[in-house]
Amino acid sequence: MNFECSEVGLWKEGLSSYSSRIESLNKPNLLSLDDFYRNQLPPVLHQRNPNPYITTAELSKLMQWKLTRGKWRPRLLDFVSSLDEAAVNWASSKAFQSLPDVSKAVSELTVLKGVGPATASAVLAAYAPNLAPFMSDEAMEAALGSSKDYSLKQYLLFADKLQTKAKELSSECDSFSPSDVERALWSSAIGAKLLASHSDPDSKRKRKR
After folding, report:
1. pLDDT per residue as tens digits for the range 52-99
2. What PANTHER family does the record point to (predicted)?
3. Contacting residues for 193 by C-beta, under 8 A, at least 6 apart
4. Which of 64, 120, 138, 173 is most buried, by CB atoms within 10 Å?
């Protein structure tokens, strides 16, 4: 799906096919990891009042979700799984308190070894999906034309574009968060890859341009 598309129906279609796209990847534990990330973790974070935080075990599971849904980088999981509990609690608590300043929130999390802007964005998206979308390669490609730069500066550009798109698509009838936009873009990109893989080699080459 083209990022500039303003057809709300197409975006809703992309978003509603998210779960079936997750299933289509046939990756071990991805369904349960995705359920943990989208449905179980957010309410747990919000129940920790007045200073919400994430635990090392939760961060490790979040990292498993991120790497299973995207590119597998085992060293990142090793780094995150061995982080000190107090350090993770402290950094994440400061990050959540920094919102709505997304730049400051990402910076508070990236002091942790193995946590770059992309992983930080996943933590923030779980807590505040209306502010901070997850920095997935597929959504970066669609919104910015590249997924090679994982810097804070690039993430802020990305988040701003997805916040703007979410506002553009939202109305009295439909409500989109920046995280909804990310999932719709990811879902659409995975759908296109699936189509390409089922086509003959010639049409596959044409699609790759």
Report:
1. 999 999 999 999 999 999 988 878 899 999 999 999 999 999 999 999
2. AMUN, ISOFORM A
3. none
4. 120
